[in-house]
Amino acid sequence: MDTTQNTQQREVILTGDRATGPLHLGHYVGSLQQRVALQTQHDQTILVADMQGLTDNAHNPSKVSSNILNVVADYLAVGIDPIQTTICLQSQVPALAELTMYYSNLVSIARLERNPTVKNEIQSKGFERSIPAGFLTYPISQAADITGFHATLVPVGDDQLPMLEQTNKIVRKINHLGGKAILKECRPLLSDAPRLPSTDGKNKMSKSMGNAINLGATGKEIRAAVKSMYTDPNHLRIEDPGKVEGNIVFTYLDAFHTDKAYVAELKAYYRHGGLGDGTTKNVLEECLQEMLRPIREKRAMFLDDKAQLVEILKQGSQRSREKTEQVLFDVKGVFGLNLF
Ligand code: TRP
């Protein structure tokens, strides 16, 4: 798959997040900053994927419903502009669900079971004995999301590449059946920022594992998270040489501290010995506090006016309905179902 980016040309971009928790620093470096940059040059839609969120939370739906506005507030707080970027709610764009039904006829169960991301998730969510049909088929729904907007560029993490492959398979089938180019193939846009590890250094940051620093984290929460961060377990005394690689405090300093020369100095000092974890953690804490304070304040301000957040979603969803209706019409046409 071609992952090159052509910034000259205005492209249709579709990306999204499952609304299953507030967004965190991993999202910030991995996708949110990139979206803020992309919105000025491209036709960008961000989907709050509430239906997809339900595919593994149907028995606890408030995990999704209670986070929809949180996620929108996160977007706005980091600088996503609802005029430049269309922010829509998946469940309020019915063409996406309808497209999913049509596409479902083109994908085999075996193929869905082979999807590496789905396979991993089935294991990690304990679905081995009973997989919800909606969960198994969410790659089809994601293909509907992408093609429904004629998106050509999809900014995602590498775990989402199988979804894009599945999407392009469906695109080729529909175009073949229709005898012409009805849908467009998409390509991924991978972030060049390295994936941010969790504060415990064990996993990727996760909304559900309690090892993430949320964008709305309080000063106290930030402090506690930094204090408990994984460093170099063999760095027992301050005067001992310490390891920078795999030391999460330095990984975060690399990701967030703006003074790179200062971070390089700290690393040299730490490697040499004489620099304690308390000091490096203090530097990191101050940097994160400073960075997150304005985001937290904006986020709280947006959440203070829920009616405005709902209005933004409503308008974005309305715009998205208009965009996706034509694609649905064309796909129904492929199956000869446009009688009236
Ligand atoms: N699967 C994505 C996630 O886990 C969310 C998502 C839903 C998405 N639809 C999409 C991403 C369409 C990109 C394009 O967060």
Automatic annotation (TrEMBL):
Entry's family note: Belongs to the class-I aminoacyl-tRNA synthetase family.
Organism of this sequence: Vibrio hyugaensis
Gene3D superfamilies: HUPs (3.40.50.620), Tyrosyl-Transfer RNA Synthetase (1.10.240.10)
Keywords: Aminoacyl-tRNA synthetase, ATP-binding, Ligase, Nucleotide-binding, Protein biosynthesis
InterPro entries cross-referenced by the UniProt entry: aa-tRNA-synth_Ic, Rossmann-like_a/b/a_fold, Trp-tRNA-ligase, Trp-tRNA_synthetase
Protein name (record): Tryptophan--tRNA ligase
EC number assigned by the record: 6.1.1.2
SUPFAM superfamilies: Nucleotidylyl transferase
GO molecular function terms listed in the Swiss-Prot or TrEMBL record: ligase activity
Pfam families with a match to the protein in the record: tRNA-synt_1b
Organism phylogeny: Bacteria, Pseudomonadati, Pseudomonadota, Gammaproteobacteria, Vibrionales
